[in-house]
Design a protein that fits this description.
By secondary structure, the chain is mainly alpha-helical. The protein has a domain at 10-111. The protein has helices at residues 10-18, 21-34, 40-60, 65-77, 83-97, 105-108, 117-138, 146-157, 161-174, 201-205, and strands at 177-181, 187-191. Helix 3 (40-60) runs antiparallel to helix 4, helix 7 (117-138) packs antiparallel against helix 8 (146-157) and helix 7 crosses helix 9.
Length: 209
């Protein structure tokens, strides 16, 4: 896309993109205090700055699920689609309309091809809390050594230590900053890690230590 992609919302999106973390916190808290809205500005900032860029990278690397995750997050947070999502959707729609493809799978590929649904569901259920528990052990005042933390959590969740180690370091590489929003609406930051996605952006962001 070229030019200004957000139309009537352009000014609002330029403001959001210009915020620092501290400004996002302040604006979100002011909304809560004034009763104008909940702390959604801080949530929106976190999604736009922290969550969408890694999804764009995954999309560029050929992961079609990343597009639908991004669309879901934008819809849930009341955000417009970022330009890369707009381009992807328009390109797919054009191919369908011009009969270049027969169905959506030819564009986006089957989402779980070659994987058993039962295994995927189990992984989806245990991966977020397992990573969260490792982070919790590592972020104590006296951190548990990483291999000890991985061994403990792997045993608790009946997953191989190798698999948990893969999940943990993949997550740290993808999300280098922890953005937490407590029930009181306050964001807390811990550098070097971030809470795993539980499939519910509100549930993840609103986690309180």
């Amino acid at each position: 896309m070229s030019g200004k992609p957000y139309g009537y919302l352009q000014e609002a999106m330029e403001s959001l993109e210009s915020w620092s973390l501290e400004e996002a916190i302040e604006i979100g808290e002011e909304c809560v205090r004034s009763g104008v809205c909940d702390d959604s500005p801080a949530h929106q900032w976190s999604v736009w700055k922290n969550w969408l860029p890694p999804l764009e990278k995954r999309w560029q690397e050929g992961d079609s699920k990343a597009l639908f995750e991004a669309l879901s997050m934008c819809g849930e947070q009341g955000l417009p689609m970022p330009p890369w999502c707009v381009d992807a959707v328009q390109d797919a729609s054009s191919k369908i309309k011009s009969f270049e493809v027969r169905n959506w799978n030819e564009i986006f590929a089957a989402p779980h091809k070659g994987r058993r649904i039962h295994d995927l569901k189990r992984e989806a259920n245990i991966k977020p809390p397992a990573i969260r528990q490792v982070l919790s052990l590592r972020e104590r005042e006296n951190p548990v050594p990483v291999m000890e933390a991985l061994s403990h959590v792997a045993g608790e969740y009946a997953v191989s230590m190798e698999k948990l180690r893969e999940w943990y370091y993949e997550y740290l590489k993808t999300f280098p900053i922890t953005t937490l929003i407590t029930d009181a609406g306050r964001i807390q930051i811990k550098t070097g890690s971030r809470l795993p996605d539980c499939g519910d952006i509100h549930g993840t962001l609103r986690h309180s230590e």
